[in-house]
Design a protein that fits this description.
The complex is a heterodimer. By secondary structure, chain A is of the alpha+beta class. Chain A is built from eight helices and twelve strands. Chain B has two domains: about 40-200 and about 380-410, no CATH class; about 205-355. Classes of the chains: A alpha+beta, B mainly alpha. Chains A and B meet through strand 3, helix 4, helix 5 and strand 9 of A and helix 4 of B.
């Protein structure tokens, strides 16, 4: 059978093979049925840090290095109006004490407090991709922004261009590094490591092109917000319960 | 995980209050040196073009020197970038696979275009000299002379015609190249400003004024450095001849040191460009304060608080105001000019520092700060290349190169 196929292929005229123009290539993938997005329900997050731990192990970011693909922020708004926030080691070990930003907070002083998980927003208009001088970072047809570790020159322009601070230099490979929604997992039908690790369902992966996806339905039908939309990046990580204090 | 790792930026960044976990000062001293160097290139070239294009005859002696010096600086300009890259061996990819939506990708094209313009202008300026050297070295003994003659023969590129008409054509070529070179030099540096000005995530950098501010301060720094180098070299020659016991071809009086007239005239151009540069910078500052958008709270705390000394004392007072007054006061001497020039160059360096480092002094969260501690004593390759000694290496390099190039292309004329 293989021989037959080979013979058939070799019999094809050269004209049968051709380069696709840019628009043709786009048209070929635009029919793709997937656009990955994310939903974070901040009401459900307790700041345990399991997601950060799982991410670091799954994606081989050195465990003790103070950089991380995903992290959880704690916000404490005091009754006197002061806002305190922190994310020790990206909340890898969760939040265990009452000390925020070096301030020992007492319960009765707190007006409100909550946790906000952060990860790459896989923007529709990613500034990091725009500024890469060699095209080492690119957006996959399903919306996820990826990095070619063999091509990145390590200039750091993408790190500077991201308003969300999700990028960093990989401590071992010495090239730009970021959250990829665990691309190696989601492209095989699995969920991201952080989604699987979250015991409370605060993190959920969505296929925004599928209106029947239960997570997409939540995004479409409930009141959700995105981070820093003023930068025009069109972020695709949606949040339930976002507060004006969130940075 | 037991593998060895190091987080870039951890070494020299100190965080304060609420800063995102991945934020560090990623662009450090070499990114301060990069615009400083390209700025000096552009400035030196513009100074030489003032003579070639606009016929400012008073700058004739300066023109040749600053052209050659600009070439030495040009070779150094990409070096800070190589020192900065995490993967320097892949630096050439910028030329192979330029991604044109990125400001940095233009580097290859602009840099090579500009290099070719400067190199060919130098060639036209020195063509006659090459031919004369070839004929005067003919028949002279010694390996040195043979080698020298061979190099000059190569440099003539086979064009031996130095008739009146041919030289007139050279002059025209020089004028055209110098004229084309000005916008390209401005583009080379303006786009360095664009690299910063277009980063919308950075509240301090993002302003359309950035490329123009960069160009103006570039010209200021370039003129200042050319004048300073000229003064130092001329005075050094005079000093050497005066103190040497060996008989020389020239006497100290014949060398004459730096010419006060030339220095005075050049400093007038310097003052003009300084006025424009400072006006733009102040305009930017006033505009930010007046419009006071979301980022202004944190910017104000950085500009008027954390970086007050760097910006208002070191940059504006020592780098601008004091040299400005020194150059304006009547009875200008070469010595006073030299001091003022050092201050001007320092001021431009501080301006670059305050943009690059100051732009990373606050967190993207607008609720925290980052402090930069320049590594002084290197204990690893990274702390060398992104530390004080790496910066000094870059700073010394143009002078070393100029010394070499000047051996072949003597650019300083004695009386």
């Amino acid at each position: 059978m293989t021989t037959l196929r080979g013979a058939a292929a070799s019999a094809l005229p050269l004209a049968a093979f051709r380069f696709l123009t840019r628009s043709e290539a786009r048209a070929a993938v635009e029919g793709a049925k997937v656009r990955w997005g994310f939903l974070v329900d901040t009401y459900k997050c307790v700041g345990c840090g399991f997601c950060v731990k799982a991410c670091k192990l799954e994606n081989e970011v050195p465990y003790d290095a103070p950089v991380t693909r995903t992290w959880v922020e704690r916000y404490v708004i005091l009754k006197d109006g002061r806002m305190l926030a922190d994310t020790p080691l990206g909340a890898r070990d969760g939040f265990t004490g009452m000390e925020v930003q070096g301030v020992q907070v007492r319960k009765r002083e707190i007006a409100k407090a909550f946790f906000v998980p952060k990860l790459c927003n896989q923007c529709e208009n990613p500034p990091c991709v725009q500024v890469c001088p060699v095209g080492a970072t690119y957006q996959a047809p399903d919306g996820v922004v990826l990095i070619d570790r063999s091509w990145c020159i390590g200039c750091g322009y993408c790190i500077m261009a991201c308003p969300y601070g999700v990028r960093f230099f990989h401590p071992v490979y010495r090239v730009a590094e970021k959250c990829t929604f665990c691309y190696h997992r989601i492209s095989k039908g699995m969920k991201t490591a952080c989604v699987d690790a979250c015991p409370f369902g605060a993190r959920q992966l969505a296929n925004l092109k599928d209106p029947n996806d239960p997570v997409t339905r939540v995004i479409l039908t409930q009141r959700v917000a995105v981070l820093k939309d003023e930068y025009g990046t069109k972020p695709q990580a949606y949040y339930i319960g976002l507060d004006e204090n969130v940075r | 995980m037991t593998e060895e790792w190091s987080v870039h930026g951890l070494e020299w960044t100190i965080k304060e209050l609420f800063v995102y976990p991945n934020e560090y000062i990623y662009w450090s001293i070499q990114i301060v040196m990069y615009p400083l160097m390209t700025g000096l290139v552009a400035g030196a070239f513009v100074l030489s073009s003032l003579y070639h294009v606009f016929g400012q005859k008073d700058l004739k002696d300066m023109a040749k020197f600053s052209l050659v010096f600009s070439f030495a600086l040009l070779i150094v300009a990409p070096m800070p970038l190589m020192f900065h890259l995490q993967q320097p061996l892949r630096g050439l990819e910028v030329f192979f696979t330029p991604h044109f939506t990125s400001a940095i990708s233009a580097f290859g094209i602009v840099f090579f275009t500009y290099s070719m313009i400067v190199a060919s202008e130098i060639w036209f300026v020195y063509r006659r000299f090459f031919v004369e050297q070839v004929s005067s070295l003919e028949g002279k003994e010694g390996i040195g002379n043979t080698l020298k003659r061979f190099i000059y023969r190569m440099l003539t590129l086979g064009a031996y015609d130095i008739s009146e008409e041919a030289l007139r054509k050279d002059e025209r070529a020089i004028k055209i190249l110098a004229a084309v070179g000005i916008p390209v030099a401005c583009f080379l540096h303006g786009y360095a400003g664009f690299i910063f000005g277009s980063v919308k995530a950075n509240a301090l950098w993002m302003t359309p004024l950035m490329p123009v501010i960069f160009i103006m301060s570039a010209i200021v720094s370039g003129i200042a450095l050319c004048m300073l180098t000229y003064i130092v070299i001329m005075e050094w020659k005079k000093f050497r001849i005066r103190t040497s016991s060996r008989p020389r071809q020239l006497t100290a009086e014949e060398v004459g040191g730096a010419e006060v007239d030339l220095v005075k005239k050049s400093s007038r151009y310097l003052l003009g460009f300084m006025v424009v540069a400072i006006t733009l910078e102040i305009l930017d500052l006033v505009f930010r304060g007046y419009t006071a958008v979301k980022s202004w709270d944190i910017l104000r705390s950085v500009i008027y608080g954390k970086d007050f000394v760097n910006i208002f004392i070191l940059q504006y007072t020592f780098g601008n105001l004091i040299p400005f007054v020194m150059l304006l006061l009547p009875g200008l001497t070469v010595r006073r000019t030299a001091v003022a020039l050092v201050l001007v160059i320092f001021g431009v360096f501080m301006m670059r520092w305050n943009v690059v480092i100051g732009g990373q002094a606050f967190s993207l969260s607008f609720a925290g700060y980052m402090h930069y501690h320049l590594p002084v004593i290197p204990h690893s390759f990274e702390t060398y290349k992104e530390g004080l000694f790496g910066a000094l290496t870059i700073a010394v390099m143009p002078f070393v190169l100029f010394w070499g190039i000047n051996k072949l292309l003597p650019s300083l004329r004695y009386k």
